Structures are given as C-alpha cells and as structure tokens.
Amino acid sequence: MNDSTAAGLRPFPIGLWVPPPAHAVSIESYKDIRDAGFTFVIGFRELEHGEEAVIHALDCSLENGLTYIVSDPLVKNLDADQAPAMEPLLSRFSSHPAYMGHLFYDEPSADQFDRLAALARTYDTLVPDGLAYVNLLPDYASAKQLGTETYAEHVERFLDTFQPKILSYDYYPLRMDGSVKATYYANLWTIHKACRSRRVPFWLFIQAITFNGTYREPNEAEIRWQVNVSLAFGAKGIQYFTYWTPEPANGETYGEALIRKDGSKTLTYRNVQTVNREAASIGPVLQSLESVGLLVSGEPLAGVEEVCDSFGPVAALEGDPAIAGCFSSGGRPHSLFVVNREYTLPAESVIVFADNRRVTIRLEPGEGKLVPLSQ
C-alpha cells in the first residue's frame, strides 16, 4: 500500500490496452499486470474465445485486486433502437466483483455519438455503478471523423451528447525522428478546458511502444514526461498503449510492448513499473484536488490559450522550461505540481513567491514534484 492509499485517498487509475491474449490469461500473467502498477484492464479479444474466457479474465483480475472492462462486439455494434437487447449481454458479466464496465467504442467518429449516447443511457439504468467506456480520437483525426468541426467542438459535442462519467482520449506524441508531435499540448489543453468546465474527470493514453514506423519506443524519461505532463494538466487517470505486443492488423505494425508475444518482459515493463510507482504515490493526491490552470516558464506552450500569471502566494514560475499544474482545494490554492518540460536534460525551476521568497527545485528529465502552498 502506498502512502496516499494509506492516507485514505482513492487509488489512482492506471489501465492498459491489449492485455494478455486468451491463451495467456492466468493468475500469474495478471499478477505481472498488478506488479507493474496497473489497477484495471481493458478487455480486448477475449470474447472471441467464448464467454468463459471473459469470466476467466475477470477471475484473474479479482485474484490480483484489478478491475476489468469487458469488450463485447455485440454491445458495441447495437443500434440505438436495439438498446433493450443489451440487458442479457451485460448480465453475463456485470455481477462479477471485478467488473468495471463495458467498452462501448474506441475512437468513434462524430456520427456515432448519438447512437452511443442512446446505448449509454440504457446501460446506466441497467448497471448504474458501471462505466460505459468510450475513448476519443486525438486532434489529428480526419475532418470526416471529427464531423468537419474544430477539435474543441468535437470534444464538447461528445461531452454534451454522451455525458460520460470519465472522458478518455489518446494522443501519441513521440515521433521516430526524435520530435514531439506539434499539437500535443494543444490537445491536452482542449481536453482540460472542456472537462474542467463540465466537471468531468479525464484519462488519457501514454505511448509505450513503437508502431507504424512513425512513433518511437519511449525510454524511461519519456514515459515519465508523458505521465507527469498529463498530471500537471489535471489528468485523473492514465492508460498505456500497449501492454502486450499486438499482432499486426489493418495495415498497422508494432514493435515490442511491455510484454513480448512469448510472455516475457521487456525493458519497457521495468520502466513503466518504475513510473507507475511514482504515479501511484502522487496521483491520488492530485486526484483529490481541483486542477485550475497552469504556470509556465520558458517558451509559451503551443496551443495553450491561457496560463496563470500567478497562483495564490506564487507570483511567478522562472528558471528552466517547466510546467506547474495549479491545484486548489475548497476554492483555495493548495499545491503546484512542477514538471520538467525536457525529457533529455535536468532543469532548475524557480518558484517566486509574492513575499519575494524564491524556492529552487531541481528536476531530472521528465520529473515532476509536488509543492504544497502555505494556507
């Protein structure tokens, strides 16, 4: 048990895409998931092997203190007027103590929102404590997928139509040429702003694999950077793409993920395990607070429309390039979460207080540190 959990805070949600395939599902393989710091599993193709394969995955989740989101194509593909047919499909699994919810759609286009919202309304009456899980597209989706709207309008339309308990989205920033995709911060800001105004928590995916010859395999600092930047922007949960190494499909190709196809662990498993331990310590604290904005030092963050000039007793953030998430409690400034914007170089960030005090924080590449503010 980490210190945050011991203090009575809720565990920080850490999930994964592509769990062990049905033939590799066991108490032992799910123990590896738990030991890497994950708290929930998003089902993938287990149901292709029958209902018992899903029950087995739920049982292995329960044995390891994990929860599990069922992936059922019959549920995903229902038309809006077929919502009443959902009940027997859900009841097969929803009473299991490890059940977390159902995957309704990964990366829906805008023309799917009304159908999914109708299904979710029925789902909520049948399983009020369950999660109707949808994962949204990033801002580099096509205009057709976004519905010829701006990305902000796409996100707002989903929030207003589907009314999710949690908004999840994916964005993979790390390019093979060593760069970061240009709209990474802009996408985070769009999600932060829309979710904050509606008081909906958001989760996002962390890139953990090379794929399609375009996106690189991240090292430990790059994983840490993705997680900590997400936390600074107010993310209330993280998920990884991917856990198990996927088979090539639909023209997409993949390198090795946390777990190879033979079930052995890669270096990325160890790196994610290390970063997840850090997230499990700080995440519950930030999850209990309200994210109200950002302080930034260095060049402006591209696409971030608003940053704070000051926050409570803090007059400015100076020094090397950094991001400080501003967090409040009960309407009062509570903490800064200061993150090094670089994942290759250490940084010194300087918090300047209104009384002219200056506090210097040293940050390793991608590192974040929580700084409580005097109340």
Automatic annotation (TrEMBL):
GO biological process: one example: carbohydrate metabolic process
Keywords: Glycosidase, Hydrolase
GO cellular component, one term: beta-galactosidase complex
Domain Glycoside hydrolase family 42 N-terminal: 166-280
GO molecular function terms attached to this record: beta-galactosidase activity
Entry-linked SUPFAM superfamilies: (Trans)glycosidases
Protein name (Swiss-Prot/TrEMBL): Glycoside hydrolase family 42 N-terminal domain-containing protein
